[in-house]
């Protein structure tokens, strides 16, 4: 049995020990976070340097392979080799671009060049970029004619659409349907890419937009799991959201939202006259 004075002294000691332990814990957490940040910064710097160095020769390889295709007849065996070289170099270039994009996004070096424009224009650009990859699927487009102007960075949103379309072509069987649709909902525009593949793995639904996330089935596909995380970073930079769900009876739906604002009003026609 302790005297009141002794109890008070013990309580004081206990409080001081608890505070000291808590401080040690927070110091460890802070040090761990600092190490993690430095490791992430170093990794991004390495990715950026490697990707930049690879991008130039890959561009040359792609152009050369395309030239070989054009100069070789389709019944020539060399045409098949040139086609294979072209397709694989395009795939490698897309991978390098994704690595470079992620490094830039993580370092905060990407500056948005937002302009008021029509969604259908950037969709058309993405479809032209992905023309060869999409040639094995049926592409359906459902864009309402009354969609308002949206303020976004066309280059970055094109990247989002290309990554989502590339994802759909990888996991949906050849000949199946890929649908691009959009709708205005209150103060947002929702854009969706729907495929008829096997759908999202249940155990990865919550991590599908994390960097380097790939399931067992996905490990046989080309890529390193950066495309969707890049999409998320770009959409969030536009103050939007991105999410994915399975659809019945099979397939996946990837949707992102872009906020609507008030486009600048045009001056009266009389003021435009010289």
Account of the 3D structure:
The chain is extended, with a radius of gyration of 26 Å. It is built from seven helices and seven strands. The chain has a five-stranded mixed beta sheet with strand order 2-4-5-7-6. The chain is 53% helix and 15% strand. It has helices at 4-70, 77-107, 119-129, 131-134, 154-171, 227-237, 269-272; strands at 115-117, 138-142, 150-152, 177-185, 188-194, 241-246, 252-259. With 274 residues, the chain is of the alpha+beta class. Helix 3 packs across helix 5 (154-171) and helix 5 runs antiparallel to helix 6 (227-237). The protein has two domains: 1-110, Orthogonal Bundle (Helix Hairpins); 115-259, 2-Layer Sandwich (Heat Shock Protein 90).
Strand order of the largest sheet: 2-4-5-7-6
The major pleated sheet works out as: 5 strands, mixed
CATH-derived architecture of the largest domain: 2-Layer Sandwich
Termini distance? 99 Å
What is the name of the CATH superfamily of the largest domain? Answer: Histidine kinase-like ATPase, C-terminal domain
Strand % is: 5-15%
Q: The CATH topology of the largest domain is what?
A: Heat Shock Protein 90
């Amino acid at each position: 049995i302790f005297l009141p004075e002794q109890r008070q002294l013990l309580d004081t000691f206990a409080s001081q020990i608890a505070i000291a332990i808590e401080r040690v814990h927070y110091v460890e957490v802070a040090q761990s976070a600092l190490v993690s940040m430095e490791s992430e910064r170093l990794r991004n710097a390495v990715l950026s340097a490697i990707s930049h160095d690879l991008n130039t020769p890959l561009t040359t390889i792609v152009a050369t392979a395309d030239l070989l295709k054009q100069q070789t007849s389709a019944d020539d065996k060399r045409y098949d080799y040139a086609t294979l070289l072209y397709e694989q170099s395009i795939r490698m270039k897309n991978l390098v671009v994704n690595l470079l994009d992620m490094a830039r996004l993580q370092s905060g070096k990407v500056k948005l060049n937002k302009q008021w424009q029509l969604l259908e224009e950037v969709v058309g650009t993405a479809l032209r970029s992905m023309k060869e990859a999409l040639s094995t699927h049926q592409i359906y487009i459902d864009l309402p004619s009354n969609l308002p102007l949206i303020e976004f960075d066309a280059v970055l949103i094109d990247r989002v659409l290309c990554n989502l379309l590339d994802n759909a072509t990888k996991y949906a069987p050849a000949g199946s349907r890929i649908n691009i649709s959009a709708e205005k909902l209150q103060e947002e525009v929702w854009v969706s890419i729907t495929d008829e593949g096997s759908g999202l793995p249940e155990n990865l639904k919550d991590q599908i937009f994390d960097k380097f996330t790939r399931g067992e089935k996905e490990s046989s596909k080309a890529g390193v799991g950066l495309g969707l995380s890049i999409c998320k970073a770009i959409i969030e930079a536009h103050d939007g959201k991105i999410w994915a769900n399975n659809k019945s009876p099979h397939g996946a739906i990837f949707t992102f939202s872009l906020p609507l604002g008030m486009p600048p009003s045009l001056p009266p026609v009389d003021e435009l006259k010289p």
